[in-house]
Fold this protein.
Amino acid sequence: MTKDEFVERFGGVFEHSPWVAERAYGTGVAEPLTAKGAHAAMAAAFRAGTEAERLAVLRAHPDLAGKLAIAGELTEDSRKEQAGAGLDRLSADEHARFTTLNDAYVEKFGFPFIIAVKGLQKNDILGAFETRINNERDTEFATACAQVERIALLRLSSMLPEGT
């Protein structure tokens, strides 16, 4: 697979951040491609990015049940992930709670709340939201980055054989 093909196929794994795939390819991603192998290379590239680059990746993520979801403007991956957690079926009160938490979280941390929603339901997500909003910024930055890496692994696992 050429670099261009790799970036075309995996450039969106880290939300709207093809630089992660570009740099991962440069590390010599092993063939045959597996989810674990591609993830290891991409996570290493993400971690090696500057704080500003990693912050840009965090900021590329949509708010949970936010304006982009309502407008139908999420990436296909984000849409499926949020729908799988029931975030596309919120009551008016639940949606208001998510909006309030999203706004407070972004105001405090400067990036949206990020959590790998696969296997979670809206109450699990709200509980994590309400707990994590009390974190210090450095703790939450590290937590959000770890969640971005988890989301990437889940996305890669749906695209590639798992591998060892």
The chain has a mean pLDDT of 88.
